[in-house]
């Protein structure tokens, strides 16, 4: 969650009116396909079979995106577009031409991400994507479909006790429009998590910037993303915190939310990411600092009330640094279990996302778990490959 300030944009729908001077003139003004009753299909009904096809097309869209990241799969230029799962859909339910172009662009971007990942030493050998249909709403010739995507990717070079897989759950809203024959075309896809999924081609949604109301908050120092990183071994006993408990909490609650805390996904202010990180740190021994919620020197959270520093990305940074509970790391590859990574995607000076390290490989690669989108065991290399121009801030806790 980026801040408590909500940012909402409202648009006013255009209203078009027309009047016919006569029955003949009015008929001439109508679109050619609707001039006669026989050529116009009634508003189509969405029966269970149609809903199932909506779900299957959504599954094909996100499966195509995931497979674009898997090593050994040929590109669309090599295999041809007919190998995309979405190309199998035609007739009653299919992609619109505009959405088809958008998906081709997304797949091209994701193949570029796969190439950047390979240069960072990471490949995926297999993937599995499943999509569940959550809700379907129909109004006239428009259908809005909510789905949940669950994706797992298998690391190609996992050894020993390294994570074998990474994965996430993401929520999407699809818009279908019925054409003149009553056939449904997928015309739009929107991610509703305010999150950063590995197969998400678009930048995370923008949210309102934070402002500090009290004092002069400390500035975090940007961390490098190059390898090899200078050595910065973590002392796991000096602080008195239980870092394994932090990692265990993240593993338990990455997609199984703790009811002892509120869920800020869909709250319109950046999601649940920092709230989740704070919960994990608290599980490992971080103590409450009570006081006013908007004073970044305070830090507390439970089911009823949370300080801004417990749930806000920037406020968390201010508290962690000013309280000396965290220090900046020069390089993201220096992070270890229990450390925190924050990202400023658009480099506007206001951080957007928080994640916690749940594992560090013997090769020195940190793996992250986070909310918004619910994700586990995602390597820092994958984050960098997805957002190579972002600013990164790593914290030793």
Structure in words:
By secondary structure, the chain is of the alpha+beta class. Helix content is 24%, strand content 22%. It has helices at 23-29, 48-67, 76-79, 97-119, 243-253, 273-283, 308-311, 313-322, 380-386; strands at 93-95, 124-139, 142-155, 165-178, 184-191, 327-329, 340-344, 353-360, 366-370, 374-379, 391-396. Strands 1, 2, 3, 4, 5, 6, 7, 8, 9, 10 and 11 form an eleven-stranded mixed sheet that branches. Helix 5 packs across helix 6. The longest helix has 23 residues, at 97-119. It is globular and about 70 Å long. It starts with 22 loop residues before the first helix and ends with a strand. The relative contact order is 0.15. Mean pLDDT is 85; it is low at 4-38, 74-80 and 205-214.
List the helices and strands and how they pair.
Blueprint: H1 23-29, H2 48-67, H3 76-79, E1 93-95, H4 97-119, E2 124-139, E3 142-155, E4 165-178, E5 184-191, H5 243-253, H6 273-283, H7 308-311, H8 313-322, E6 327-329, E7 340-344, E8 353-360, E9 366-370, E10 374-379, H9 380-386, E11 391-396
Parallel strand pairs: 1-5
Antiparallel strand pairs: 2-3, 3-4, 4-5, 4-10, 6-11, 7-8, 7-11, 8-9, 9-10
Helix pairs in contact: 2-4, 4-9, 5-6
């Amino acid at each position: 969650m980026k801040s408590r300030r909500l940012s909402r944009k409202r648009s006013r729908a255009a209203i078009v009116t027309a009047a016919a001077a006569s029955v003949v003139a009015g008929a001439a003004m109508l679109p050619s396909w609707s001039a006669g009753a026989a050529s116009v299909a009634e508003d189509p009904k969405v029966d269970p079979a149609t809903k199932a096809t909506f779900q299957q097309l959504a599954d094909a869209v996100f499966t195509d995106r995931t497979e674009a990241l898997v090593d050994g799969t040929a590109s669309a230029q090599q295999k041809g577009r007919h190998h995309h799962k979405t190309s199998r859909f035609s007739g009653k339910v299919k992609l619109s031409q505009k959405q088809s172009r958008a998906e081709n662009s997304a797949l091209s971007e994701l193949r570029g991400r796969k190439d950047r990942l390979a240069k960072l030493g990471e490949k995926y050998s297999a993937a599995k994507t499943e999509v569940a249909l959550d809700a379907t709403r129909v109004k006239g010739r428009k259908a809005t479909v909510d789905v949940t995507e669950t994706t797992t990717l298998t690391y190609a070079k996992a050894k020993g006790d390294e994570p074998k897989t990474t994965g996430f759950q993401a929520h999407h809203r699809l818009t279908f429009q019925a054409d003149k024959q009553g056939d449904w075309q997928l015309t739009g896809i929107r991610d509703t998590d305010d999150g950063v999924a590995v197969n998400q081609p678009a930048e995370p949604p923008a949210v309102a910037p934070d402002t500090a109301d009290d004092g002069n908050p400390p500035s975090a120092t940007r961390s490098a993303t190059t390898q090899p990183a200078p050595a910065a071994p973590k002392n796991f006993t000096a602080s008195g915190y239980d870092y394994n408990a932090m990692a265990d909490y993240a593993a338990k609650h990455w997609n199984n939310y703790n009811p002892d805390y509120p869920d800020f996904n869909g709250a319109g202010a950046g999601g649940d990411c920092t709230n989740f990180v704070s919960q994990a740190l608290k599980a490992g021994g971080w103590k409450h600092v009570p006081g006013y919620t908007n004073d970044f020197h305070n830090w507390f959270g439970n089911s009823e009330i949370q300080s801004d520093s417990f749930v806000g990305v920037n406020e968390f940074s201010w508290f962690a640094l000013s309280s000396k509970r965290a220090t900046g790391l020069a390089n993201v590859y220096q992070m270890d279990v229990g450390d925190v990574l924050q990202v400023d995607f658009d480099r506007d000076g206001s951080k957007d996302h928080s994640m916690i390290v749940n594992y560090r490989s013997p090769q020195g690669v940190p793996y992250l778990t986070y909310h918004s989108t619910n994700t586990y065991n995602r390597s820092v290399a994958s984050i960098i490959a997805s957002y190579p121009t972002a600013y990164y801030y790593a914290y030793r806790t």
